[in-house]
Amino acid sequence: MKSRYRERVNMACLDGTSPFDFPDVPVMDGINHPNDISHPERQAGVLRFERAAGC
């Protein structure tokens, strides 16, 4: 049986990795955990990162 939940990894917790290494990072609502509410977590938005010129 396929799970309806996707695995998530907090990239900020991995050595040598930052959320700013990715152009688009989904941001979850941070309040309603799927194990607490019996349905998939809600995406609150998307963090978009554009590197400044010269960086």
Descriptive account of the structure:
The chain is mostly beta strands and 55 residues long. Helix content is 7%, strand content 20%. The protein has one helix and two strands, in the order E-H-E. The protein has one helix at residues 34-37; strands at residues 24-28, 43-48. A two-stranded antiparallel ribbon has the order 1-2. The longest helix is centred in the middle third of the chain and has 4 residues, at 34-37. The chain is elongated, with a radius of gyration of 14 Å. The relative contact order is 0.24.
Q: Tags for this entry?
A:
55 residues; mainly beta; two-stranded antiparallel sheet; 1 helix; 20% strand
Describe the structure concisely.
This protein is mainly β and 55 residues long.
Coarse shape: elongated
Quickly give the structural class.
mainly beta
Strand content: 15-25%
Radius of gyration, CA atoms, in whole angstroms: 14 Å
Question: Unreliable runs, pLDDT <50, ≥5 residues?
Answer: none
Task: Report the end-to-end length measured between terminal Cα atoms.
Answer: 46 Å
Q: How many H/I helices? A: 1
Topology record:
Blueprint: E1 24-28, H1 34-37, E2 43-48
Antiparallel strand pairs: 1-2
